[in-house]
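User: Could you check the structure of this?
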Amino acid sequence: MSEQPGGPGGPGPGLPAEESERLLAVGKIVKPHGLSGEVVVERWTDLDERLAPGSSLVAGNGTLVVLASRPHQGRWLVYFEGVVDREAAERLRGTVLEAEAVPVPGAWWVHELVGVEVTDTSGTVLGTVAAVEANPASDLLVLASGGLIPLRFVVDHQPGRRVTVDIPAGLLE
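Assistant: Sure, the predicted C-alpha coordinates are below.
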Protein backbone atom coordinates (compact mmCIF):
# COMPACT_ATOMS: atom_id res chain seq x y z
CA MET A 1 0.00 0.00 0.00
CA SER A 2 1.32 3.46 -0.71
CA GLU A 3 0.17 6.99 -0.40
CA GLN A 4 0.14 9.09 -3.54
CA PRO A 5 0.49 12.85 -4.03
CA GLY A 6 -2.90 14.44 -4.65
CA GLY A 7 -4.58 11.13 -5.45
CA PRO A 8 -6.30 10.16 -8.68
CA GLY A 9 -7.96 13.55 -9.08
CA GLY A 10 -4.85 15.60 -8.36
CA PRO A 11 -4.33 17.99 -5.48
CA GLY A 12 -7.25 18.95 -3.29
CA PRO A 13 -9.39 21.71 -4.82
CA GLY A 14 -9.82 24.95 -2.94
CA LEU A 15 -6.40 24.75 -1.29
CA PRO A 16 -3.42 26.98 -2.04
CA ALA A 17 -1.19 25.24 -4.62
CA GLU A 18 1.78 24.95 -2.25
CA GLU A 19 -0.43 23.32 0.44
CA SER A 20 -2.22 20.92 -1.90
CA GLU A 21 1.10 19.75 -3.37
CA ARG A 22 2.16 18.51 0.09
CA LEU A 23 -0.97 16.40 0.49
CA LEU A 24 -1.00 12.66 -0.10
CA ALA A 25 -4.08 10.66 -1.06
CA VAL A 26 -4.62 8.24 1.83
CA GLY A 27 -8.02 6.76 1.02
CA LYS A 28 -11.44 7.10 -0.53
CA ILE A 29 -14.95 7.07 0.89
CA VAL A 30 -16.66 4.18 -0.89
CA LYS A 31 -20.25 4.35 0.39
CA PRO A 32 -22.47 4.90 3.42
CA HIS A 33 -22.76 2.11 5.99
CA GLY A 34 -26.03 1.99 7.89
CA LEU A 35 -28.28 4.93 8.72
CA SER A 36 -26.28 6.94 11.27
CA GLY A 37 -23.61 8.58 9.07
CA GLU A 38 -20.95 5.90 9.18
CA VAL A 39 -19.04 5.42 5.89
CA VAL A 40 -16.92 2.69 4.34
CA VAL A 41 -13.38 3.90 3.61
CA GLU A 42 -10.93 2.18 1.30
CA ARG A 43 -7.60 2.92 2.96
CA TRP A 44 -4.64 3.50 0.63
CA THR A 45 -2.06 3.77 3.39
CA ASP A 46 -0.61 1.40 5.93
CA LEU A 47 -0.50 4.12 8.59
CA ASP A 48 -3.31 3.37 11.06
CA GLU A 49 -3.07 6.86 12.54
CA ARG A 50 -4.59 8.33 9.36
CA LEU A 51 -8.01 7.10 10.57
CA ALA A 52 -7.46 7.41 14.32
CA PRO A 53 -10.04 9.38 16.32
CA GLY A 54 -9.18 13.08 16.24
CA SER A 55 -7.23 12.94 12.99
CA SER A 56 -8.14 15.43 10.26
CA LEU A 57 -8.33 14.63 6.56
CA VAL A 58 -8.74 16.99 3.63
CA ALA A 59 -11.80 16.08 1.56
CA GLY A 60 -12.54 18.25 -1.45
CA ASN A 61 -12.93 21.84 -0.23
CA GLY A 62 -13.06 21.00 3.46
CA THR A 63 -11.74 18.98 6.33
CA LEU A 64 -13.22 15.87 7.93
CA VAL A 65 -12.37 14.98 11.53
CA VAL A 66 -12.49 11.30 12.50
CA LEU A 67 -14.71 10.58 15.52
CA ALA A 68 -14.39 6.78 15.44
CA SER A 69 -13.06 4.09 13.11
CA ARG A 70 -12.63 0.34 12.97
CA PRO A 71 -11.45 -2.24 10.42
CA HIS A 72 -14.23 -4.14 8.64
CA GLN A 73 -13.86 -6.77 5.88
CA GLY A 74 -10.63 -5.35 4.44
CA ARG A 75 -11.82 -1.75 4.64
CA TRP A 76 -12.58 0.69 7.46
CA LEU A 77 -15.85 1.94 8.91
CA VAL A 78 -15.52 5.58 9.92
CA TYR A 79 -17.65 8.18 11.66
CA PHE A 80 -16.72 11.76 10.77
CA GLU A 81 -17.65 14.81 12.80
CA GLY A 82 -20.85 16.41 11.45
CA VAL A 83 -21.88 13.41 9.34
CA VAL A 84 -24.92 12.26 11.30
CA ASP A 85 -27.17 10.45 8.84
CA ARG A 86 -27.17 8.34 5.69
CA GLU A 87 -27.96 11.34 3.47
CA ALA A 88 -24.86 13.22 4.67
CA ALA A 89 -22.78 10.05 4.28
CA GLU A 90 -24.11 9.54 0.75
CA ARG A 91 -22.90 13.02 -0.25
CA LEU A 92 -19.36 11.90 0.64
CA ARG A 93 -19.43 8.86 -1.66
CA GLY A 94 -16.35 8.83 -3.90
CA THR A 95 -14.52 11.54 -1.92
CA VAL A 96 -10.73 11.16 -1.94
CA LEU A 97 -9.19 11.71 1.50
CA GLU A 98 -5.85 13.49 1.70
CA ALA A 99 -3.37 14.27 4.46
CA GLU A 100 0.09 15.74 4.94
CA ALA A 101 3.07 13.41 4.59
CA VAL A 102 4.24 11.79 7.81
CA PRO A 103 8.00 11.29 8.10
CA VAL A 104 8.84 7.58 8.03
CA PRO A 105 12.53 6.73 8.55
CA GLY A 106 13.98 5.09 5.45
CA ALA A 107 10.85 5.68 3.34
CA TRP A 108 10.68 7.67 0.13
CA TRP A 109 7.48 9.37 -0.92
CA VAL A 110 6.41 9.37 -4.54
CA HIS A 111 6.17 13.17 -4.53
CA GLU A 112 9.84 13.32 -3.51
CA LEU A 113 10.86 11.27 -6.55
CA VAL A 114 8.69 12.61 -9.38
CA GLY A 115 10.46 15.36 -11.32
CA VAL A 116 13.96 14.67 -9.99
CA GLU A 117 17.02 14.03 -12.13
CA VAL A 118 18.34 10.48 -12.29
CA THR A 119 22.09 9.91 -12.59
CA ASP A 120 24.19 6.79 -12.55
CA THR A 121 27.11 6.30 -10.15
CA SER A 122 29.53 7.88 -12.66
CA GLY A 123 27.41 11.07 -12.80
CA THR A 124 25.84 10.48 -16.22
CA VAL A 125 22.34 11.95 -16.40
CA LEU A 126 19.86 9.20 -17.35
CA GLY A 127 16.72 11.34 -17.36
CA THR A 128 13.96 12.65 -15.13
CA VAL A 129 11.48 10.65 -13.06
CA ALA A 130 8.00 11.04 -14.59
CA ALA A 131 6.23 8.59 -12.26
CA VAL A 132 6.68 5.72 -9.86
CA GLU A 133 4.93 2.51 -10.83
CA ALA A 134 4.02 -0.20 -8.36
CA ASN A 135 5.51 -3.57 -9.22
CA PRO A 136 5.49 -6.77 -7.12
CA ALA A 137 9.25 -7.37 -7.38
CA SER A 138 10.34 -3.75 -6.93
CA ASP A 139 8.56 -0.46 -7.57
CA LEU A 140 9.82 1.21 -10.74
CA LEU A 141 11.08 4.69 -11.49
CA VAL A 142 9.44 5.61 -14.81
CA LEU A 143 11.68 8.01 -16.69
CA ALA A 144 10.26 10.70 -18.98
CA SER A 145 11.95 8.80 -21.84
CA GLY A 146 9.92 5.69 -20.96
CA GLY A 147 12.83 3.84 -19.34
CA LEU A 148 12.12 1.79 -16.21
CA ILE A 149 14.51 1.49 -13.27
CA PRO A 150 13.68 -0.75 -10.30
CA LEU A 151 13.92 1.16 -7.00
CA ARG A 152 16.26 -1.52 -5.65
CA PHE A 153 18.98 0.06 -7.85
CA VAL A 154 18.74 3.44 -6.07
CA VAL A 155 21.91 4.05 -4.04
CA ASP A 156 21.37 7.69 -3.07
CA HIS A 157 18.40 10.03 -2.89
CA GLN A 158 18.41 13.79 -2.40
CA PRO A 159 14.70 14.66 -2.01
CA GLY A 160 13.49 17.07 -4.67
CA ARG A 161 16.86 17.13 -6.43
CA ARG A 162 18.47 13.89 -7.54
CA VAL A 163 18.39 10.11 -7.44
CA THR A 164 21.58 8.15 -8.04
CA VAL A 165 21.25 4.60 -9.35
CA ASP A 166 23.66 1.72 -9.87
CA ILE A 167 22.04 -0.15 -12.77
CA PRO A 168 23.29 -3.12 -14.77
CA ALA A 169 24.77 -2.36 -18.18
CA GLY A 170 22.15 -2.32 -20.92
CA LEU A 171 19.11 -1.86 -18.63
CA LEU A 172 17.92 1.28 -20.43
CA GLU A 173 18.82 0.16 -23.95
